[in-house]
Amino acid sequence: MTVPRGPAPRAGPEPLADGAAPAPDGALDRQLARLGSSWTWLLGSAATTLVPGILILAWPDETLHVLAVLIGLYLLVTGAFRFVAAFAREHGERLPALLVAVLYVLAGVLCLRHPLQTIAALSLITGAVWLVTGMLTAWAAIAAKELPHRGFVLGAAVLGIVAGIVVLALPVESTFALTRLLGLWLVLIGLVELGVAFAWRAALRKARAGSLPGTPTAA
After folding, report:
1. CB-based burial, 164-182: b 16+ in 10 Å, e otherwise
2. Cβ distance 84 to 35 under 8 Å?
């Protein structure tokens, strides 16, 4: 998942009430960065992962067509969330985040365009997206040493990498088995992303409290 840089007190415009940070020059960049750095945006992204996982586990006997549509919608909507969140990052880190967003959107379009593809193809698409995204997220979390609650972000990255490896490595011989596997990983990843969203909210509140005049800060 894409997580903005750690909040820090700085000169200039104040953040928005929901935790959005000041953005780079340009009206569109500024609006996207404010939205993408909001903890509620991360919460929405987590819900986008969690809800399809619950639906898939709740109805495991549905056809491959339904499974492909659910996975395609998950990839497409998550790609949109990641695209906006990418603008909350520094310019040097924005390109990898945008590439991940494009990867999600392309994979989602592929699943929706060809919903009757084989189980192996659906597993390959989903596993590859999770693996690449997990690796890029882990790299970003390691590089951003000031990122608050890096453990949550690294946990989400590791979970994505493991999910991608498991889906790609294990042969799936039935729609039922694939449904349970993908649904389980979506729920797990969604829960970790929920933890990241709430950790980001706590970090933003702490940063705002520390920036108030007369508020004592830790040494």
Report:
1. bebbeeeebeebeebbebb
2. yes
* 158 in any annotated domain: yes
- Structurally, the chain folds into a number of domains equal to 1
Query: For residue range 154-203, what is the model confidence (pLDDT) as tens digits?
Result: 888 888 898 888 888 876 666 777 788 888 888 988 888 888 888 878 87
Q: Distance between CA atoms of 10 and 42, rounded to whole angstroms? A: 23
pLDDT tens figures, 53-96: 898 888 876 667 788 888 889 899 989 888 888 877 666 567 77
Other beta carbons less than 10 A from residue 67's beta carbon = 24
- The conformation of residue 173, written as its DSSP 8-state character, comes to -
Task: Provide the domain limits for residue 97.
Answer: 27-206
Residue 214 lies in a domain: no
Q: Let me know if residue 10 belongs to a domain.
A: no
Q: Is 183 exposed, middle or buried (0-12, 13-18, 19+ CB in 10 A)?
A: buried
